[in-house]
Fold this protein.
Amino acid sequence: MPIKLCEQAFNPWKEIEAYQTQTAELAGKHGATAVFVGTMRDFNQGDGVRSMFLEHYPGMTEKQLQHIVEQAERQWSLLDTLVLHRIGAVNPDDTLVLVAAWAVHRGDAFDACRFIMEALKSRAPFWKKETLVSGQARWVENNSKGYQSK
Amino acid sequence: MPIKLCEQAFNPWKEIEAYQTQTAELAGKHGATAVFVGTMRDFNQGDGVRSMFLEHYPGMTEKQLQHIVEQAERQWSLLDTLVLHRIGAVNPDDTLVLVAAWAVHRGDAFDACRFIMEALKSRAPFWKKETLVSGQARWVENNSKGYQSK
Amino acid sequence: MSIKVRYFASLKETVGRSEDELESIAPLSVRDIWRQLNPDLAMPETLLAAINMDYVSLDANVDEGDELAFFPPVTGG
Amino acid sequence: MSIKVRYFASLKETVGRSEDELESIAPLSVRDIWRQLNPDLAMPETLLAAINMDYVSLDANVDEGDELAFFPPVTGG
């Protein structure tokens, strides 16, 4: 269940392939892999976007992602997971996030991948600041509060 | 929306990467890619499996997959899809199926990928015949009828 | 003109043939054709049928020139 | 011992600082600390808080030595 924050651009398909190849326990054992890749678009809320900065809370980000993956592992029958998230300066078409889940059966892989992704969106402390084509900078807003404190 | 039946082993991650790279319209436009990869296990229903043969109904397979993808495209907002399915003789750890869906938003990509995969399992005319480690051959059974004729 | 009938997977092994050719004058349903071609074989409960590569019910009518296929539940993916 | 307070993203720009250090004798809630450190700034409705990198409610008590963080709704992924 590696979780990595990446300061440099990464190729999600090469990352999955490399991880799967090096993880001998998966060979012949997993029947299902569900993957989500989030990519930076060059357009958001009606404006062209030139670049973006991904701020995060070092330490808390890793801790929350760890919680999320452990929760998924308790809830579904998983063989392995992989979570990569970009931090710092990013450009359109860069991969922002990769979530992969390996399981024997497809239901577990699909459900866990989606759960991890939704939980990451609402709980992992990342914040996006866009620089528009116009030169203006703005924080991306999240209309839902996301994490609901009790 | 390419749909391909593959007689030879293929690497799903290289296929996605190659398709995405050659499809210029996706660059900077897609925010979300959801992928499912089904892989042959070396174990099924309590028995070691040595190899498998994937029979299909040529013509109907392509027609049904086309229907399924078109249905997904009507139901969700998608930028593109890719469906590859292996046919013929396969070995453990070979990829059996790859479904990818590209969209602006993650909900569409996730839902469409899962829909295509579930519909493929119930409607695409493929049949698996396993050869066990013991040498015995058997057809894989589908306990649900799958496609419900009205 | 005639009706081409195809069998797949385990069903092909059960009936012992992959294809039949049927000359018919009267209108026939999918069910009628099965009975006519396989009089000694009960229709499997989970039997699926397709006419011209689209799924149909066992009561569907088959026309001259159609390709009718019989097969067990599918197990791809 | 003291309480370390951190601000992130747009909130950091709004308060104009990334960190505060607070010496406290009385027991304080997250809400108390916000008010003490930012007396002229209404608490944003969507404010999130974490103590030692776990989410907490605004009524949670903060202990000496804790790291308290304030930030807006997250937008990762």
About this structure: Chain C touches chain B through 22 residues (CB under 8 Å). The longest strand of chain C covers residues 3-7. The radius of gyration of chain C is 12 Å.
